[in-house]
Write a structure and sequence with these properties.
37% of the residues lie in helices and 13% in strands. The chain has helices at 15-19, 49-60, 66-69, 75-80, 114-125, 145-158, 175-182, 201-204, 210-223, 241-253, 280-293, 310-313, 315-323; strands at residues 64-65, 85-88, 92-93, 103-104, 129-134, 163-167, 189-191, 228-235, 258-263, 297-300. The strands form two sheets. It has an eight-stranded mixed sheet, sandwiched between helices. A two-stranded parallel sheet has the order 3-4. β5, α6 and β6 (163-167) form a beta-alpha-beta unit. The longest helix has 14 residues, at 145-158. The radius of gyration is 19 Å and the shape is globular. The termini are far apart. The mean pLDDT is 87.
Length: 324
C-alpha cells in the first residue's frame, strides 16, 4: 500500500488498501467464514427507476450521498421514496474506520459551490426534511463545520419550510472552533453517532474518543437548548447487551434525546466481521429500555440507520414545522 505521502489528492482507497494499517488487525474472511444473514434482514432492490432518476439528479448537481458511499442497505427504499442523506465535503474520508465503506485518502478542497447546489437540489426535490452528513475532514481547521453552516444557511434561504438535520463527525481536536461556526447557523436536529461501546473504540473507531463524542453532543445541546440532539449505536461488533445499555445511560446523562440502534452489516471481507446478528426481540428490548431512560424517541431494528426515516425520529421538529 502507498504511504500517506504518496497518495494523490482525490485518490480513493478501499478494502484492503484502506484497512491494512489500522491499529487492530482484521483477517479477511472467506465467504464460508462469514455469518449467514438471518431471514429478517432483507433490503429493497436498489435498481428501480426511482433510484436511477434520483442518482441522475445528484450527479447533475455534483452531490454525494452517504447512502451510496457507505453502501447503506436501505438505499432502494429511501431513493425510491425520493429521500436521501446528502454527504458534503467530498466522498473521501481522512480516517479508516473498519466498519465503514466510505473511501479513505487525501480529500480535495471543499467545493465552494456545494452549499448552493445542495439547496437547489433540496428545493427541486421539494423535501420537507433533509439530513446532511459528511466525511471526516481532519485536514480542515474546523473539521468542516463552517461548510456545514454554509449549507444550512443556503437551505434556509432557498427552502425555508424544510427541516434540517446534520450528522457530523467528532471534529476531534477542533471542537471549540466547530461549535463556534455551527452556532452561526444551527440545524433543527444535531446528530453525532457514538457507534459502539467504549471497550471497542480502538478496534471500531480508531482516531476517535468515546468521552469526546459525548462531550460534543452535550456542549452543542447546552449551547442550543431548542435543538434536539441525536446519536446512534450499531449492534454486532463484539459488544454485550449490558454494555449497550450502559452507553444508552451515558447518552441520557449527556442529555441526548433521540437514539437509533441498528445491526452492523459487513461491507466487504476486509472490513470488521459481524460477530453476531441480534434477534428482533433484543431490538425491541432496547426500545423499551430507551423509553424508560427518557429518550424522546428510540428507533431500534436490524435495518435502522441514523438517517433512515429521520423525519420520523423527530416528531417534535415536524410538528413545529407544520405549525409554522
Amino acid at each position: 500500500m502507498p504511504s500517506s505521502n504518496t497518495i494523490q489528492s482525490g485518490q480513493k482507497l478501499r478494502g484492503y488498501e484502506k484497512l491494512n494499517r489500522i491499529p487492530v488487525r482484521i483477517e479477511p474472511q472467506s465467504k464460508s467464514e462469514r455469518l449467514r444473514k438471518p431471514p429478517w434482514i432483507r433490503a429493497k432492490f436498489p435498481g428501480t427507476p426511482e433510484v436511477i432518476k434520483l442518482k441522475k439528479i445528484l450527479r447533475e448537481n455534483n452531490l454525494n450521498t452517504v447512502c451510496e458511499e457507505a453502501s447503506c442497505p436501505n438505499i432502494g427504499e429511501c431513493f425510491g421514496n425520493g429521500t436521501a442523506t446528502f454527504m458534503i465535503l467530498g466522498d473521501i474520508c481522512t480516517r479508516r474506520c473498519p466498519f465503514c465503506d466510505v473511501a479513505h485518502g487525501r480529500p480535495n478542497p471543499p467545493d465552494v459551490a456545494e452549499p448552493l447546489n445542495l439547496a437547489r437540489t433540496v428545493k427541486h426535490m421539494n423535501l420537507r426534511y433533509v439530513v446532511v452528513t459528511s466525511v471526516d475532514r481532519d485536514d480542515l481547521r474546523d473539521g468542516g463545520a463552517s461548510h456545514f453552516a454554509d449549507c444550512i444557511r443556503e437551505m434556509r434561504k432557498q427552502c425555508p419550510a424544510t427541516a434540517v438535520e446534520i450528522l457530523t463527525p467528532d471534529f476531534r481536536t477542533r471542537m471549540h472552533k466547530a461549535l463556534v461556526n455551527l452556532a452561526l447557523a444551527p440545524p433543527d436536529v444535531f446528530s453525532h453517532n457514538i457507534e459502539t461501546v467504549p471497550r471497542l473504540y480502538r478496534a471500531v473507531r480508531p482516531g476517535s474518543d468515546y468521552i469526546h463524542s459525548l462531550e460534543l453532543l452535550k456542549r452543542f445541546g447546552e449551547q442550543h437548548p431548542e435543538v434536539e440532539t441525536k446519536s446512534g449505536i450499531m449492534i454486532g461488533v463484539g459488544e454485550t447487551k449490558e454494555e449497550v445499555i450502559e452507553v444508552m445511560k451515558d447518552l441520557r446523562d449527556y442529555a441526548v434525546s433521540i437514539l437509533t440502534i441498528g445491526q452492523y452489516l459487513q461491507p466487504s471481507r476486509y472490513h470488521l466481521p459481524v460477530k453476531r446478528y441480534a434477534p428482533l426481540e433484543e431490538f425491541e428490548q432496547y426500545k423499551e429500555i430507551g423509553k424508560t431512560l427518557g429518550f424522546s424517541h428510540v428507533a431500534s431494528g436490524p435495518l435502522v440507520r441514523s438517517s433512515y426515516r429521520a423525519d420520523q425520529h423527530a416528531p417534535g421538529v415536524i410538528k413545529k414545522l407544520n405549525s409554522a
